[in-house]
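Apologies for my clumsy wording, but are you able to produce some protein sequence, whichever is easiest, and the C-alpha cells describing how it folds?
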Amino acid sequence: MEFLADYGLFVLKAVTIVIAILVVIGGIASLSMRNRSDSDGELNIKKLNDELDDHQQQLRAAVCDKEVQKQLQKQEKKEQKAKRKAEKKRAKDGMEPLPEARKRVYVLDFDGDIRASDVDLLREEISAVLTFARKEDEIVVRLESGGGMVHSYGLAASQLKRIRDSGIHLTVCVDRVAASGGYMMACLADKVVAAPFAIIGSIGVVAQLPNFHRLLKKNDVDFEMFTAGEYKRTVTMFGHNTIKAKEKFQHDLEDTHQLFKQHVQQYRPRVDLEAVATGDIWYGQQALEYRLVDDVGTSDDYLIHACDHADVFTVRYEQRKSLQEKLGMAVQAGVEKAGVRLLTMANRQLHSKG
C-alpha cells in the first residue's frame, strides 16, 4: 500500500509539472497571437459539391462491383459528351453559349463566445464575398452562439446587415443554439433554419455581479471611488450600492431590452413580441410556431440540397499561425479533450446502476 501511495504521489507531481509546462507554452502562444497583425491571414475556399462527389465515388468503389461501376462511368461519359455536342452545335449555328445558370452559395461559419471573438474573421469573410457575389447568389451563415456582450454582438449583427444591405439573400442555419446575442444576429437573415432541438430565442438582457461591501466593512477595509458625473458609475462590486444606483442600472437594462425588441421587430415583423420577448427559449420546432425561425432542419440537409442546383463554396478566413501558436492550440485542444472526457465519465457514473 505504501508503494501505491508513493507511486500515486509521483504521478500527481508529474502531472503537475506537465500542466505547468503546457500553461507556459499556452501563455507564449497567447502573447504571440495578441501581437499578430490583423492582415496576417488568407482565405481558404473549398467547393462542397466536389467534396460530395468525392465521397460518392469512394462509396461507389466500396459498395458496387466492377461491372456496375463501369456502367455508371459509361453513363456519365455519355451525358458529358451530349452536353459538349450541344454546346458545339450552338456555336456552329452562331448562337450565344448558354449562360451560367447555376447560382453560387457561399457558406460562412460563426461560433460565438461571450465576446463574439469570431467577428474579426467574419468581417473579413463577408468583405471578401461581397466583392464577388452576384444578386442571384446566396450567403449561408452557420451560426452557433448563446450570446454575450451587447456591444460585441451588436457589431456581429451589423456585419450580417451588410449582406442584407447588398441585396444578396442571407440564410442563417442554427444546429445547436442561437440565443440572446446569437438570435440578435440570426433574426437579420431573410431565412432562418433551425435544427429540431436547437435552442432559439432568449430575447432579454441580464447582468449580474457580486458585491463585497459587507465583507470589506467587516474587515475594516474602506473602498473609495471618485467620479465626475452623476451616472459615471452606478452599481459596483466593492462599494455600497444605493437604491438610486440600482434603479438606474435596472433602467439601463430595460433600455437595452427595448432596443433588442425593436431590432427583432424590424427584421421579424410577424413575430409576436409580447409572447417571445420574455427572455425565454424554445426548441427549433417550437420556435417555428412562434415564427422565430422559418424552417426546421439541419445545415447539412440545407447545403446538400443546395448542391443540386448551385455551386456551394465554404469560405474561411484563417490567420497564419506561428510555431508557438500551433503549440498553444495543440495544448488547448488537449486540455479541452481531457476536460470533456472527465465530464463524460462523470456523467456516465451518474447514470449507471452500479
Summary: The CA atoms of residues 51 and 116 lie 30 Å apart. The longest strand covers residues 103-112.
